[in-house]
Amino acid sequence: QVQLVESGGGLVQPGGSLRLSCVPSGFTLDYYAIGWFRQAPGKDREGVSCISGSGGSTHYADSVKGRFTISRDNAKNTVYLQMDSLKPEDTAIYYCARKIGRACSDRYYPGTYTNWGQGTQVTVSS
After folding, report:
1. Under a CB-based contact definition with an 8 Å cutoff, are residues 113 and 1 in contact?
2. Are strands 78-83 and 68-73 parallel, antiparallel or unpaired?
3. Taking all residues of the chain, what is their mean pLDDT, rounded to a whole number?
């Protein structure tokens, strides 16, 4: 059974940092690209970042570029999202998802992802 479990969310002050983890099970991680999305109350789900199956290709939404870093450790079977210089507008539930295939094509279109985690809450507030 394919599952993805996120962790690492919490409450942080503006300018602070958090590292989210996504641990998948039920499939071989390096066969698939993994994406991170977020959804704030009353807003649509937004693509944040994507990393290819090999880890050699990474992509970021303009809203997080330069502040967030996606990485993966296939040996530890974990994908990370390092979030620095956090802003109140980063407040949302963050989800990781398994993409169809190894590449990050159409990376911010949710329909190209087949499995989603349950999400982890990130709140940026003073």
Report:
1. no
2. antiparallel
3. 94
Q: Does the pLDDT at position 54 exceed 90?
A: no
> Residue 77, SS3?
coil
Structural contact between residues 86 and 73, judged by C-beta atoms closer than 8 angstroms:
no
Closest CA to 78 of 17, 6, 9: 6
Q: CA angle at residue 48 from 64 to 94, to 5 degrees?
A: 110
For 61-120, how does the pLDDT look when each residue is reduced to its tens digit (9 = 90+)? Answer: 999 999 999 999 888 889 999 999 999 999 999 999 999 999 998 888 988 999 999 999
Q: Are 119 and 22 in contact (CB under 8 A)?
A: no
Encoding tokens for residue 19? 């590292």
* Residue 106: per-residue pLDDT: 86
Q: Closest Cα to residue 47, out of 34, 58, 35?
A: 35
Distances (CA, A) of 103 to 22, 49, 52, 66: 18, 13, 5, 22
* C-alpha to C-alpha distance for 26 and 66, rounded to whole angstroms: 32
